[in-house]
Amino acid sequence: MKTLNLYALEGIPLIQQGDDIGAIICEIAEKEKFSFEGDDIVVVTSKIVSKAEGRLIDTYKVEPSKETVALAKKLEMDPGKLEVILRETKRVLIARPGLIVTEDRLGFISTGAGIDSSNTLPGPKGQVLSLLPEDPDVSAKKIRQAIEKKIGKKIAVIINDTFGRPDRKGSVGMAIGISGIAAVYYPPTKEDIHGKKRSPEIAQIDEIAAAASLVMGQTNERRPVVMVRGVDFQPSETDKIKDLLHPVTKYIQDALEAVKQAKGEK
Amino acid sequence: MKTLNLYALEGIPLIQQGDDIGAIICEIAEKEKFSFEGDDIVVVTSKIVSKAEGRLIDTYKVEPSKETVALAKKLEMDPGKLEVILRETKRVLIARPGLIVTEDRLGFISTGAGIDSSNTLPGPKGQVLSLLPEDPDVSAKKIRQAIEKKIGKKIAVIINDTFGRPDRKGSVGMAIGISGIAAVYYPPTKEDIHGKKRSPEIAQIDEIAAAASLVMGQTNERRPVVMVRGVDFQPSETDKIKDLLHPVTKYIQDALEAVKQAKGEK
């Protein structure tokens, strides 16, 4: 039987700005008697990376522009929060009451530039938002280096977050930063069970991110770190999360096409 | 440590039309000394379900219409294959050379109505395509009933397939049929780690489908059945895969909005 095992560390302390997540993972793993093996994949939720990197903003300190205040009224959103979202946004893709879908500065298409207030301590005067890490690939690399130095084995690190999708309800764990693993997986076997040629492209890092998300939980589970063991993956020292992303022009082109088709144009 | 374990059965025979997949799973599980526990989730790839249900079509037997031949030329596709796709399609959403994205009769938005020729035996005169199961929820229920009868415990079944996404490269395992599990997961805990109110909607069945896909493989791995143990899920006797899907009108509305925003309209 081929097996795949996920282990979520319990007892990770509340992460503070400046904390060394890689070192904390090693410490808790030792306490929990988890021993790393080579080719383990460590999935870390972006939330604690953002906290460690101080990517938190008190909305009461944010001065929304006049344009933002007007748009916030239209979208029925908090102007301070919208201001923070827009600062992290390259392009707004969908904007209607209750929903803003953006291409953020990292190239991700998500709701509100991946900004939220879950699992942050409330500020003295209100909401504290967490932004995505400055550069999630760099964050992943730092965590990876700290762990590899300690254990003397090669691993991979994926930073994940939960995103919505246009055609399906609910959120799904997806990869937002990687280190040590290829962005797209091309299986080494090039034939199907009947010997026909195949060359599938698999978004394996998203599948791993989704699997880890199942045990991390989304409320007060406090399991922000999950080790995944048993995935046949392609190591890479150079791949970045951008290598998984379609350019947003493709998204727009597809949207254009969908609208044309729906209208019955040729 | 919270753990999540996936077990892929090895030695599942090549599935033929008329095979009872639930019975085969029980048989191989016994041979492999896998013992089911209550609340295990069995993920079955749609490919073997389609085969068991005889959802295979030899393209040489298909007579494409004149319209299909013309469209196939434009899209640089095989006319026979396109004819089969269109018969399973409710609405074409994107159509350009090399790519056709459809809303199929089941409501899924995917490339080519989820039809492909991987892991099918070549027919006497060419390509054999597999269509999605007639009603994947019904297929899931049958498999579930066969297993539950044999083991005397409650489980859940998910039929999965791999889909592309508009903003990210590569394919990801997603759920296309369910039995015994809620379509959308609402965690029973309603607070985050700091006691703030939360009510996340989680596409847990897609996360499970993605996790299982990691071990199933996409070429000649022959691991079409994966048992998932350790997920906190909400059982349901009534939920269907449709309960996870947004109506396609939302997709069109979002596409419209994306195009408007990209053009800088208000």
UniProtKB/TrEMBL annotation, chains A, B:
The lineage's top-level taxon is: Bacteria
Keyword vocabulary terms for this entry? GTP-binding, Ligase, Magnesium, Manganese, Metal-binding, Nucleotide-binding, Potassium
Q: Which SUPFAM superfamilies does this one have?
A: CofE-like
Q: Where is the Coenzyme F420:L-glutamate ligase-like domain?
A: 12-230
**Which Gene Ontology molecular-function terms are recorded?**
coenzyme F420-0:L-glutamate ligase activity; GTP binding; metal ion binding
Keyword Metal-binding found: yes
PANTHER family documented for this protein = COENZYME F420:L-GLUTAMATE LIGASE (PTHR47917:SF1), PTHR47917
Name of the protein in its database record: Coenzyme F420-0:L-glutamate ligase
Q: Which organism is it from?
A: bacterium (Candidatus Gribaldobacteria) CG23_combo_of_CG06-09_8_20_14_all_37_87_8
Give the taxonomic lineage as stored in the record. Bacteria, Candidatus Gribaldobacteria
